[in-house]
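Review form for a predicted model. The reviewer records the input and the model, then writes brief findings.
Reviewer: anonymous (R2)
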Amino acid sequence: MTHDLKTERPHKRRLWIALLLAASYLTVEVVAGLWTHSLALLADAGHMLTDVGGLTLALTAIWFSEKPATPELTYGYYRGEILAALANSVVLIVVSIYILLEAYQRFQHPPAVAGGTMLVVAGIGLLVNLASLFVLKGGSQSSLNVKGAYLEVVSDMLSSIGVIIAALVIWRTGWRYADPLVSAGIGLFILPRTWKLMSEAIGVLLEGTPASISLPEVRNALAGIPGVLDVHDLHVWTLTSQVYALSAHCVVADSRLSETLLGRVRKLMHRKFNVSHVTLQVELKPCGDAERHA
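Model under review:
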C-alpha cells in the first residue's frame, strides 16, 4: 500500500502559503509588542511563532511521508505527520501556560500600553489570520497535520480579535487591565482545543480504533459475509490521517472460501469504513488465544 501523494500536494501548497504569511507577520508583531509593552500582542506573537513552527513541522512531515518504505520502516514515514501534530500541541500548551503566568504577573503590576499602535498591529494580524484560514480550511478535514495548523490559526484569529478589543479599551479609557485580561482569556480558550488535538495524536500513536469507526459495526459486517462463522483478534488502527488498517481472524465453514474471502473483505471494508489496508487470517476453528483480543 502506498500513500496517495496527489492528495498531499494541495496540502503542501496551502501550508507553504500560510507559513509565508505567518513568518512575515511574526517579526512585525514581536517588534510592535515590545514597543507598545503589550502582553496581548506578545501573546499573539507567541501563537504566531507556534504557527511558524507547526507549519514547518507539517511540511517536514509531508516530505517524510513521501519517502518510500524500506525494509526497516515497512510503512514508510507515515507517522511523521502524527509526531508533528503531537509536537505542535505540546508547544502550544507550553506557550498558553506561559501566557497565563505572565498575565497573572501583569494583573499585579499592569504596565502602560500604547493602545493606538496596538490596535493597528492587531488589525493587520486579523487580516493575516483570515487569509491563512481561507488557505488551510480545505485540507483541515482530511489531514490531522493541516487540522493542527488550522486550529492554531483559529486561535490566533480569536486572539487578534481579543487584542483589538483590549486595544480599543486601553485607547479610549486607559484601563490597563484590559491587556492581561484578554491575554488570560486567549490562554484559557486555547488549552482545551489543543488538548483535543494532542489526544487524537496520542490515540493514533497508541494504535487506538479511529473515532470514525465502530469496532462492533466492523465485526458485524465481517460476520455477515456468507460462510463466516466467527470473527476474533480484530484490530483497526490509523497509519496516518485518513489511512486506516485492519487485521482479523475469520473462522469459515469451508476452507475453499479463503480464496475469495479476502477480496470480499477488502471491498467491504473500503466501501463501508474507508479501510485501505486489510490483513486477514482464515481459520477452520478459532485459535487458542482468541480471548485475549477484541
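Findings: The chain has eight helices and three strands.
Further findings: Residues 101 and 184 are 9 Å apart (CA to CA).
Recommendation: see findings above.
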